């Protein structure tokens, strides 16, 4: 039986089809609770994901990156881009039984920013908020900041990115070729984007912004994002927690 979500109704139909036993929705809910099941927001994963290929990337390609970084005295960064909007609503809110909670949304004043960031398993976060479109010029500007920071720390940058088109464009390739001594870039397999640990930072930021009072202007959205990123930057244990997922703890 195929079901997008295993709701009580889906479980009820499954039991009826497999065991010819008819139960009420309430009875199914009672059984699920007794068996230790609780409703949770599902994690999105690509249909194209191939577990054996993911394991191969972890066991071979990532370990090769790790070994090279150690040999060169480098630091591994996981990078990603995200969009921030002031109309995003996430999470749950309590309300009296039978009443749907209401959140005040911003209408007609949708504001959007972009952000590129990286995280390391040592609890370091680097970031740049962008007002406008994210393009190769902004990416190179961020690379330059990472390299400058790496030089101050005496560490070469080893950066793992996803396969966004801008990461492979000619200007970016040319810039990277000229700075091989300072930075090397590697790419995650396209069939498993959730391997990117920086996505956890993005989720952290979006959750905090969306659970606060809606911001009406781009300046306030920028300030809210900047304040929380500054908080993350000064709390390395919070960044390290992104690496505790059982699927990605190899990176720690």
Can you give a write-up of this model?
By secondary structure, the chain is of the alpha/beta class. A 5-stranded mixed β-sheet has the order 3-2-1-4-5, with helices on both faces. It is globular. The mean pLDDT is 83. It has helices at 8-19, 25-34, 51-71, 136-153, 170-178, 198-210, 218-233, 236-240, and strands at 75-85, 112-119, 125-130, 157-161, 183-187. Helix 5 links the parallel strand 4 and strand 5.
Short description:
The chain is an alpha/beta fold and 252 residues long. The protein contains eight helices and five strands, in the order H-H-H-E-E-E-H-E-H-E-H-H-H.
What is the strand content? 5-15%
Strand count, sense and closure of the main sheet? 5 strands, mixed
Global morphology: globular
Q: What is the count of helical runs?
A: 8
Query: What is the spatial order of strands in the main beta sheet?
Result: 3-2-1-4-5
* Sheet/helix structural class: alpha/beta
Q: Give the averaged pLDDT, no decimals.
A: 83
Furnish the topology, listing elements before pairings.
Layout: H1 8-19, H2 25-34, H3 51-71, E1 75-85, E2 112-119, E3 125-130, H4 136-153, E4 157-161, H5 170-178, E5 183-187, H6 198-210, H7 218-233, H8 236-240
Parallel strand pairs: 1-4, 4-5
Antiparallel strand pairs: 1-2, 2-3
């Amino acid at each position: 039986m195929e079901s997008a979500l295993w709701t009580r109704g889906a479980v009820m139909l499954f039991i009826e089809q497999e065991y010819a036993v008819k139960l009420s929705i309430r009875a199914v809910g009672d059984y699920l609770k007794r068996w230790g099941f609780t409703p949770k927001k599902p994690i999105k994963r690509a249909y194209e994901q191939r577990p054996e290929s993911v394991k191969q990337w972890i066991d071979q390609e990532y370990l090769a990156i790790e070994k090279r970084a150690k040999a060169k005295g480098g630091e591994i960064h996981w990078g990603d881009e995200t969009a921030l909007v002031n109309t995003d609503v996430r999470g749950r809110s309590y309300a009296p039984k039978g009443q749907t909670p209401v959140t005040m949304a911003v209408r007609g004043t949708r504001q959007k920013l972009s952000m590129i960031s990286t995280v390391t398993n040592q609890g370091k976060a680097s970031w740049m908020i962008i007002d406008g479109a994210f393009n190769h010029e902004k990416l190179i500007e961020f690379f330059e900041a990472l390299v400058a920071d790496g030089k101050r720390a005496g560490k070469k940058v080893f950066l793992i990115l996803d396969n966004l088109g801008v990461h492979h464009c000619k200007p970016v390739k040319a810039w990277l070729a000229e700075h091989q001594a300072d930075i090397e870039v590697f790419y995650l397999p396209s069939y498993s984007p959730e391997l990117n640990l920086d996505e956890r930072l993005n989720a952290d930021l979006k959750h905090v912004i969306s659970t606060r009072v809606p911001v009406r202007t781009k300046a306030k959205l920028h300030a809210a994002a900047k304040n929380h990123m500054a908080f993350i930057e000064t709390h390395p244990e919070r960044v390290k927690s992104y690496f505790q997922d059982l699927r990605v703890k190899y990176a720690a």
